[in-house]
Amino acid sequence: MLIADSDEHLRQLLYSALLAVDVFADCVANVPDALQKIREEPYGVILVDVGLPGGNAEEIVTAIAQVRYARRPVVLVLASNPAAARSLDVDIVQIVLRKPLALRQTVELIRSCVHSASGAIAEEEDGDGDHAIS
Q1: Quick one: DSSP state of residue 87?
Q2: From the CB of residue 58, how many other CB atoms can be counted at a distance below 10 Å?
Q3: Residue 88 contacts residue 116 (beta carbons within 8 Å)
Q4: CA dist., res. 106 & res. 94, Å (int)
Q5: Which of 65, 97, 73 is nearest to 84 (CA)?
Q6: pTM score of the predicted model
Q7: Going by C-beta distance under 8 Å and a sequence separation of 6 or more, which residues neighbour residue 125?
Q8: Are 127 and 76 in contact (CB under 8 A)?
Q9: Which residues of 77-93 are buried (b: 16+ CB within 10 A; e: fewer)?
């Protein structure tokens, strides 16, 4: 999965908590880095802060729509004010989470999304389905 949030403490907290439940994540702190990662890696789940510096969340959502994923990733948006996420494409953004996050519930939600995404990808593969999902 990809965690795109400018709050270093939150990124580290989520990364560690997810690693503890066997979910592997890449972390970025700004829009340009998020865009680069999205174009390079087929993420199953992407978590984006609506206030990410270096651009806006809409650019990231647009990039997700343009990248050719075998199956579109689950996109979660973090917002201190959920109204800030209203302009984002509802065909791409599945979940809006209000900051501050409840860590345990957020990790369980992400874990569930990652497992759903990896299960869907495994069903689509003709091979052994032995691919790592992030």
Answers
A1: T
A2: 14
A3: no
A4: 14
A5: 97
A6: 0.87
A7: 131
A8: no
A9: bbbeeeeebeebeeebb
Query: Is the backbone of residue 77 left (phi > 0), alpha (psi -120 to 50) or beta?
Result: beta
Instruction: Please list the residues that pair with 74 across neighbouring strands.
Output: 45
Give all strands (DSSP E) within 53-106, no chain letters: 74-79, 93-98
Question: What's the pLDDT tens digit per position in 20-79?
Answer: 999 999 999 999 999 999 999 999 999 999 999 999 999 999 999 999 877 889 999 999
Specify the 3-state DSSP secondary structure of 40: helix
CA separation (Å) from 7 to 49, 66, 71, 110?
Answer: 9, 27, 29, 18
| SS3 of the chain: helix, strand, coil, percent, to 5 | 45, 15, 40
Q: Are strands 45-49 and 93-98 parallel, antiparallel or unpaired?
A: unpaired
